[in-house]
Structure formats: structure tokens, C-alpha cells
Amino acid sequence: MNYLQPYIAAAAFVLLTACGQQKAAEKKTEEKVGENLVQLSEAQVKNAGIITARPEKRIMAAELKVNGQIDVPPQNIVSISFPLGGYLESTKLLPGMHVNKGSVIAIMEDQQYIQLQQDYLTAKTRLGFLEKEYARQQALNQSKASSDKQFQQTEAEYRSQQILLKALSEKLQLISVNPASLNEASLSRHVNIYSPINGFVTKVNVNIGKYVNATDVLFEIVNPDDIHLGLMVFEKDVNKLAIGQKVWAYTNSNPSKKYECEIILIGQDVTPDRSVQVHCHFEAYDKTLIPGTFMNALIETAADSVLALPEEAVVRYQNNQYAFIQKDNNVFEMVQLKTGGIANGYVALPQDREELARASFVTKGAYSLLMKLKNAGEEEEE
């Protein structure tokens, strides 16, 4: 059998040479393909379901993506203080509680409330006396039984007492005490604080027993029935907006739930970061939307005829968008795109790249190409 050894050795040499040539050819092909190109066999193209097509001209309304937060108009936010100051005797308010307009939200106490009520009742009693004296002096003056000076002095005292009583009445109403129902039996050191609106308590700045000044804010109540969406739009995009435009807003925690809004006001001043505030009104009130919540939003701008691809043709990788263009028979190149608006399952292509209109894009199977390209790159690194 020794006479066969030279032939076996020669056959092995030929086989190894062929394998080496094949690997060299494959390596040469890989070098030719490059890192953004992927080449498939006919079988791989069929299995991946690759379909190519040119971009279509479609009428699409571009979407402007912005962000902002839930806002409440000033008339729906009330900061509650107490004009005369005093000690907080009691309150049951906690942040998040709902209160109704006119309900008692706290009770204050102080000796100055007693003094004010006393002054009012004393002034009211004296006014009754001066009113009768004024009528008497007026009758005497008409009959020339008293001097004009005496009558004028009585009239001045009467008018002054009317002014004093009116001033004390206004002070009482300032602390929610009804002067008409006040008498010596209803004098009290306690004064109630009432809620001026329906809403939710957002701040409680005091505790029981604390002395508060007239300038201190005790509570803050917000009525969310008329909440707005405040958006910040860059200066360059403001000319695309108009009153009445539709806006679709969503939160980071639940992006699938869209809230329909409408632009009601566009700001007329530009902030230092070159943005303008835009106010939007929610079409339907949702109690889960809390003032201050961060929101993303899509604004529909004017419709236009643009080049577009099916959404499936555009894939995302590392926060960038890509599509695959057919370069040769079963050779595809991955290109980065900055897409425009999305509507009815199509995504708009950048309008400043005219060469894309002549390209043949992978409209089905793009994700499979992305996986093959990236997996091949990871294997090469290993």
C-alpha cells in the first residue's frame, strides 16, 4: 500500500489548496462588501422575504415633534392667605385632597378678631344715636331753633360715623364675617377660612398653632378643569403653526395613549434658548393629567406632496434611523436617514436628497438585513 502514499499526499495538497482559494475568495468578497453592505444568496433573499421598491409621492401632513408640560391658567390657581394674620387653630387639608367652593378649610383665632367685631358693633350703636340726633338738629335748624354751626357739626359727626361703620364692615367681610348677622351674642375669637374655588389642594404651608402673617400663603388650590398644555417650540418652526391646529400629546410612561389638543395661543416673545411658548387646549379633560406633568407632542403642519416609504422600510439602531438600498444583485447598502412626518403607515424622506427618488429601497425584510449586518460585524470583532 506504500505505492499509494504519493497519490494520497497529492490529493490532500490539492484539497487544501482549493479550500484556501475558496476562503481567500470569500474574504475578498467580504472586503468588497464593506461594513455598511450586506450580500445575500438567492435562498437567503427568499427566506428573508426581501421586497424592494422606489419611494412614492404621497400627500402627507408633516409632524413637528415638541415637548412641554401640563399647565393651569392663573385664574385656576388660588394662593390662600389671611388678611389680618393670626393663629391657625385647625385644618384637615392635605396635598391632593379635593375641596368644594365655600367649604371651611381652616379656622383661625386671634384677639384682634374680637376687637374688630367690638369696634363694628360699637360704631353701629353710635351711628343709631347720631342718626336720631342728626334728624333732631335738622328739624331745629329748619325752625331756626338752633344755629347752623350746631347743625353742621352734628351732620359731620353723622357722616363720619357712616364712613367708619362702612370701613369696619369691609374689614369684617375681608375675613369672611357677615356684618349683617353680627350681634353681641355672636362675637367670637374664631374666624373660618372658606375655599374660593372647587379644586385640589397642592400646597399646605402651615401647621396647627402656627402664627401666620397677612403676607404668608397658607394653602394653594388648583382647579384642573381648564388645564392647558404648554409647549416650547423652536423659533425656526413657529411659522409652521396656526391657531386651531391639531396636536397629539402623550406621556413618557404611556406613549401609546394620545390626547387630542388644539392650539389656542402662540406666544409673541422668544426665550433665551430661542423658543416660543405655545398654549393648547385639551379636547377632553382627563383627571390623570396632573399640572406639571412632562408631555411630548406631535403637531400636524400643512400637508404637502413628499417622497415616502412604508414605515417597515425604516429601522432604528442606536437612536438613529436607517434604510437599505439595493446596490447590486442581492447586495444592499445601509444608509442613515433623517425622516420627516409619519402618516397612514408611511414615513416622509428628507426632501433635500434628490438621489433618493431614484433608489430602490428594501420595503420588506429591512430588519432582517440589519440583524445580519450587525451580527456579522460582531463575529468579525471576535
TrEMBL record:
Residues spanning the signal sequence: 1-24
InterPro entries noted in UniProt: BSH_CzcB-like (IPR058647), MFP_Cation_Efflux (IPR051909), RND_pump_MFP (IPR006143)
GO biological process, one term: plasma membrane copper ion transport
Organism: Chitinophaga agrisoli
GO cellular component: cell envelope; membrane
Gene3D superfamilies: 2.40.30.170, 2.40.420.20, 2.40.50.100, Helix hairpin bin (1.10.287.470)
Family the entry assigns: Belongs to the membrane fusion protein (MFP) (TC 8.A.1) family.
Protein name (database record): Efflux RND transporter periplasmic adaptor subunit
Keyword tags: Signal, Transport
UniProt xrefs under PANTHER family: CATION EFFLUX SYSTEM PROTEIN CUSB, SLR6042 PROTEIN
Keyword GTP-binding: no
UniProt-recorded Gene Ontology molecular function terms: transmembrane transporter activity
Location of the CzcB-like barrel-sandwich hybrid domain: 78-222
